[in-house]
Amino acid sequence: MSVLGAESRRDMEIRRYPLLVYTLVPLGALVLQAWLPRVVGRYDWFDLPLLVTIFFALGRRNPLQGTLMGAVMGLFQDALSHNAIGINGIAKTVVGFLAGSVGIRIDVDNHTIRILLTFALSLLSSAIYLFVARFLLGLGADWNGLTELLRAVGNGVIALVLFPLLDRLRVRD
Amino acid sequence: MESFIVRYRNLVVLLALLMLQLVGLAVQVRRTTGGTSTLEDTDPGGVRLIRLWANAVISPPERLIHSSTTGLATLWSNYIDLVHVRRQNKNLEDTVDRLRLEQAALLEDARQGERLQAMLGFQQKYIYSTLAAQVYGSSGSDRSHVFYIDKGWHEGLKPDMAVITAEGIVGKVRDVFPHTAQVLAVNDATSGAGAILETTRIRGVLRGDAAGQLEVVGVTADERIHPGEHVLTAGGDLIFPRGLPVGIVKKVVRDPDRDGLVDIILSPAAPLDRLDEVLVITSTEPRFSPQDEKDLAASALEQSTVPAAIKDQVKASEIMAEKLPGLMDPNLPADQQPLNDTSNPNPAAQPPQPLHPDEFSPSANDDSGTTPEASSTPKTNHPLAAPAGPGSGATPSSKEKPQTTPPRNP
């Protein structure tokens, strides 16, 4: 993993995207996340809103934007479920912040790094979700470690394809 | 202070957002008497509003995708995917020839089947009112087994209505929006319904586990529970009508938390992960066929005519009682009541004198000379001299002393 110093980050390129991309891509992720499980059945081992959060937070290299994006995506996911609104919101807020913070320090153009980062942040998101639901709220949420691991792997695989596609949408100088 | 906020702007925003969401979560969670936490049964107003907005944003494109894929699938299968149509057509023609021969043999069986089907009234078996709805989306999370249907409160849906398919139960309506509704599937961990095993009649609570498997929990270990047994709704939860198929017993495992109890893992009767069309039970009032309704109306009419006939009879008797003289007259004093009147309005007429009196004539008893006329009358045995009969108009008054037969002279 190539770790960069604080000086070099000034030289790094901040990726910018058209406003339409900022609107449609998260919306598309939320819609597909709600619709695709009907097609794939029980094998919904992916979290598209999480992937979009990580992608934009890494690309913008801005923890603030990553935090906001994560909060909005998580709250939308909670609102579409029957669970308490805020559990996913907290998990993705933290993930967005971390992804934005890490994006300052590492070379996010490297696909391997992005995939590994996605895998790790996916596991972290699941852990935060479980922590909030089980320990903070005491809701006694069921948990299956294998499913969370498979979801992290699925997110990594999808990121492998999705991130290069989304890279094409950025504004080039 | 300002420089501190600017310097740590990212952290401040992160903490502020986390705090906001934690406060929001605290509002939604309730502490039960048992010391555990649970979500409120109904969403608070603000939470419901957020769900409504999220649904309003996500539902239209989701429904668009759903209808587009359906249209594309139709377009593909009907107009594009026609590569093997010619060969299929030839095969189909052969099949038609063969089927024509079989048709004749099957015709009689079909007629018999129709008669039996009509006899069983299979089509009228399910008598509750239902509304068909199409499933168009889900929660997108395997932690929340909910899905969305394209009918809402404009179509008459309300929370806690049962959702079923022809195969079995599916879930219950949880949240209702104007044109859509959220359905909580029976395999969700927070779901709950009464279930009963068909043959052993063992009852338990139906819910889902972490993996989304359907299971009946809270069942005492019993050797009679075997895989393959059918499980039905018990009907005590006020949501699902009794006797609807739930699933088939797949296996029985020990309850890890409670000794002596087992969890029964089920294969759901309805395809819970591949739902397209569902039925929402909108009313549990029985829905009868036109013939049944006709019979009921005739029965009700008959019941209403019987009291009317009795009423007519009572009325007629009252009218008759008014017209006939009574023994008690309310307008008269007690001593002048007709009941106390001893005067006979129809005094008994004097019996005609016999033309030829004999020893049986009334006057013959008074030989002592009580009736001088009678004593002067010659005695005779003429039959016409018998005392006047009932038709003679000389019936003696009831107050008169009854006559005793005089002793016959030897």
What does this structure look like?
The complex is a heterodimer of chains A (173) and B (410). The longest helix of chain A has 26 residues, at 111-136. Chain A has 173 residues and is mainly α. Helices cover 70% and strands 0% of the residues of chain A. Chain B is an alpha+beta fold and 410 residues long. Chain B has a domain at 129-283: Thrombin, subunit H (Beta Barrel). Chain B has 6 helices and 14 strands. Chain B has a 6-stranded antiparallel beta barrel with strand order 3-4-7-6-5-14. Chain B has a 6-stranded antiparallel β-barrel with strand order 8-9-10-13-12-11. A two-stranded antiparallel ribbon of chain B has the order 1-2. In chain B, a hairpin with a 5-residue loop joins β8 and β9. At the A-B interface, α1, α3, α4 and α5 of A face α2, β2, α3, β3 and β4 of B.
Please specify the SSE layout and strand pairing.
The complex is a heterodimer of chains A (173) and B (410).
Chain A: H1 19-40, H2 48-60, H3 63-80, H4 87-105, H5 111-136, H6 145-167
Helix pairs in contact in A: 1-2, 2-3, 2-4, 2-6, 3-4, 4-5, 5-6
Chain B: H1 2-7, H2 9-28, E1 29-31, E2 37-39, H3 45-80, H4 85-120, E3 129-138, E4 146-149, E5 162-164, E6 169-176, E7 181-185, E8 193-197, E9 203-208, E10 214-220, E11 230-233, E12 245-254, E13 261-268, E14 277-283, H5 290-323, H6 372-376
Antiparallel strand pairs in B: 1-2, 3-4, 3-14, 4-7, 5-6, 5-14, 6-7, 8-9, 8-11, 9-10, 10-13, 11-12, 12-13
